[in-house]
C-alpha cells in the first residue's frame, strides 16, 4: 500500500501548479503540512485593551504544558509577522492566548480578530513549568500580563492537587486592570489553599518586594517562587531573591536594551532577499527585515532561543542587550538582539 506522503506527492503532481495543501485548506482552513494553523474559536475581553483568544489548532499540534508559550503569526499590512504569546489556558484544554493591545501584531489580535479567523502558529515552547515532581507551597508574583502564565499554572496545579498551598501576588494598575481576577477569585472560592493578594499601583505605588513582601507573604522564604511581568518587577524580584540566597523561576516577555536610542546604525543588506535597508542603531536586524516584509525566523525575540540565527557576511553588529560589538565574517548572529553598527550584510 502506498504511504501517505507518496499519495500526497502524487496528488500534488496531478494538481500542479497548486499543492494539495491549497485544496485541503479550502475544505479545512487549519490544514497545512507546511505551517501549523489554528482557527480562533472565541474572543473574550479579559481587561481593558486585553483579550483572550481561544484557538483550535490543526493536525500536528502537540498539547501544551502549563506555563509554555507559542508563536502566533498574522498578516499585518500584507507582511507576515510572528510574536510569542504565553498560553493562558490550563493543560488539557484548547490553547488560549491572552493578549494586551501593544504593537502591531497584538493590536490586530485584540481589535481585529473574530471567531472563525485563522492564524498561523508554532508548537508550544518554554520551561516556565510547575515543579516536577509537584510540590507546594508556591509563591507566584505576577505583574500586568504576567498573570497569564500564572493562570495556566494555578488552574493546572489545582486540578491535580486540589489542596495545593499557593499564594498569588498580583500587581496591576487598578482592580479593573487585574487580568483573570474573577477567575482567580473563583478558584480561591473552591480551593482553600489558594490565596490571592492584589496590589494596585495607582493606589499604593509600584510594588517593591523588599519593602512589602514580609507583610504580604510572611512565609515567602518557605515557598518556591515564580515571577512574570514587566522588566522592572522581574529585576526587583531577581535582586530580592538573589540577596536572600533563594532560587527564583522567571518568565520574561521582553529583555531590557541598554543601547542608546540614538545609536548610529547603517544599512543592512539581506543578500538572499536582495534588499538593502536603512538600519537604525537601536533597531534589531530582525525588526528592520520584518518591517520590509522579509520573512525571517524568530522565536523568543529576546536573544535566548537562537531561532533567529543568521550568518554575518560583512560588517559589524552591536548587541542591543550588552552593547558589545562583533563582526567576524561567517559568525552566526542573533538577529533579534543585533543592530547594525555601520553597513552590514547578512546571508538571509
Ligand atoms: S528569536 Fe530567540 S534568540 Fe532571537
From TrEMBL:
Occurrences of domain 2Fe-2S ferredoxin-type (ranges): 266-348
Domain (FAD-binding FR-type) ranges: 33-131
Needed co-factor(s): FAD
UniProt KW Iron-sulfur keyword: yes
Keywords of this entry: 2Fe-2S, FAD, Flavoprotein, Iron, Iron-sulfur, Metal-binding, Oxidoreductase
MF terms (GO), sorted A to Z: 2 iron, 2 sulfur cluster binding; metal ion binding; oxidoreductase activity
Cross-referenced SUPFAM superfamilies: 2Fe-2S ferredoxin-like, Ferredoxin reductase-like, C-terminal NADP-linked domain, Riboflavin synthase domain-like
Record-linked PANTHER family: NADH OXIDOREDUCTASE HCR
Name this polypeptide is given: Ferredoxin reductase
Naturally occurring in which organism (per UniProt): Propioniciclava tarda
Amino acid at each position: 500500500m502506498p504511504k501517505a506522503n507518496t499519495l500526497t506527492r502524487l496528488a500534488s503532481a496531478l494538481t500542479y501548479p497548486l499543492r494539495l495543501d491549497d485544496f485541503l485548506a479550502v475544505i479545512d482552513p487549519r490544514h497545512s503540512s507546511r505551517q501549523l494553523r489554528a482557527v480562533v474559536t472565541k474572543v473574550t475581553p479579559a481587561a481593558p485593551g486585553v483579550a483572550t483568544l481561544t484557538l483550535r489548532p490543526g493536525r500536528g499540534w502537540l498539547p501544551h504544558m502549563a506555563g509554555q508559550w507559542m508563536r502566533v503569526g498574522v498578516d499585518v499590512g500584507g507582511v507576515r509577522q510572528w510574536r510569542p504569546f504565553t498560553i493562558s489556558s490550563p493543560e488539557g484544554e484548547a490553547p488560549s492566548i491572552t493578549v494586551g493591545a501593544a504593537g502591531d501584531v497584538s493590536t490586530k489580535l485584540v481589535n481585529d480578530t473574530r471567531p472563525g479567523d485563522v492564524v498561523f502558529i508554532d508548537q508550544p515552547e518554554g520551561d516556565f513549568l510547575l515543579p516536577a515532581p509537584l510540590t507546594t507551597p508556591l509563591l507566584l508574583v505576577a505583574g500586568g500580563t504576567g498573570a497569564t502564565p500564572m493562570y495556566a499554572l494555578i488552574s493546572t496545579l489545582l486540578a491535580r492537587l486540589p489542596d495545593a498551598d499557593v499564594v498569588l501576588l498580583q500587581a496591576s494598575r487598578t482592580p479593573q486592570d487585574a487580568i483573570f481576577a474573577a477567575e482567580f477569585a473563583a478558584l480561591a472560592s473552591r480551593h482553600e489553599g489558594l490565596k490571592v493578594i492584589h496590589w494596585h499601583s495607582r493606589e499604593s505605588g509600584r510594588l517593591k518586594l523588599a519593602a512589602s513582601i514580609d507583610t504580604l507573604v510572611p512565609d515567602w522564604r518557605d515557598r518556591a517562587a515564580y515571577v512574570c511581568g514587566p522588566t522592572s518587577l522581574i529585576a526587583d524580584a531577581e535582586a530580592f531573591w538573589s540577596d536572600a540566597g533563594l532560587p527564583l523561576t522567571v518568565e520574561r516577555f521582553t529583555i531590557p536594551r541598554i543601547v542608546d536610542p540614538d545609536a548610529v546604525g547603517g544599512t543592512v543588506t539581506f543578500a538572499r532577499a536582495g534588499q538593502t535597508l536603512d538600519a537604525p542603531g537601536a533597531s534589531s536586524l530582525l525588526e528592520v527585515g520584518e518591517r520590509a516584509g522579509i520573512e525571517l525566523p524568530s522565536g523568543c525575540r529576546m536573544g535566548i532561543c537562537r531561532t533567529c540565527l543568521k550568518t554575518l557576511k560583512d560588517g559589524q553588529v552591536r548587541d542591543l542587550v550588552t552593547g558589545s560589538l562583533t563582526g567576524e565574517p561567517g559568525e552566526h548572529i542573533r538577529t533579534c538582539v543585533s543592530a547594525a553598527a555601520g553597513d552590514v550584510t547578512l546571508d538571509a
